[in-house]
């Protein structure tokens, strides 16, 4: 079961989930490419054990990126925004919708081209740390704003039913 599903409060349901973008694999893939080239060069020169070490070491960056991507969770619920990254060392942020002042999206030109960016949620009394390389950050922001808008509509509809 995911962190988000384990930490839902009563009456809370997930309305939108986001994930890290595939761009997190670009740097590890480049490091792996260099390691494989060094392995081939070592093998060609006559050092097969060094080549084998380079091949084994080349798996580490992609494995770390894969674990990081699979352990990151981002969700909007009908009551909160929940953000979690990390596997061994976790970084989490949870904020009730009524405490959110603004949601910032920072996208570079490359980020806009490939569809990823940084989300920063500013709440009353403080600022959360930014969460980088989230897929479709503008959609994530829209979903947060949608839920905030619906949460403002709910009390008014309850008051209308009571009268």
Give a quick set of tags describing it:
elongated, 163 residues, PH-domain like, alpha+beta, four-stranded antiparallel sheet, 27% strand, 5 helices
Task: Compile the SSE list and pairings.
Elements: H1 3-6, E1 14-18, H2 26-45, H3 48-71, E2 73-77, E3 80-85, E4 91-96, E5 100-106, H4 109-114, E6 116-123, E7 126-127, E8 131-135, H5 137-162
Antiparallel strand pairs: 1-2, 2-3, 3-4, 5-6, 6-7, 6-8
Helix pairs in contact: 2-3
Question: Quick gist of this model?
Answer:
The protein is of the alpha+beta class. It has 2 domains: 3-20 and 75-162, Roll (PH-domain like); 25-67.
Describe the structure.
- By secondary structure, this protein is an alpha+beta fold.
- It folds into 2 domains: 106 residues, PH-domain like (Roll); 43 residues.
- The protein is built from 5 helices and 8 strands, in the order αβααββββαβββα.
- A 4-stranded antiparallel sheet has the order 1-2-3-4. Strands 5, 6, 7 and 8 form a 4-stranded antiparallel sheet that branches.
- Helix 2 packs antiparallel against helix 3.
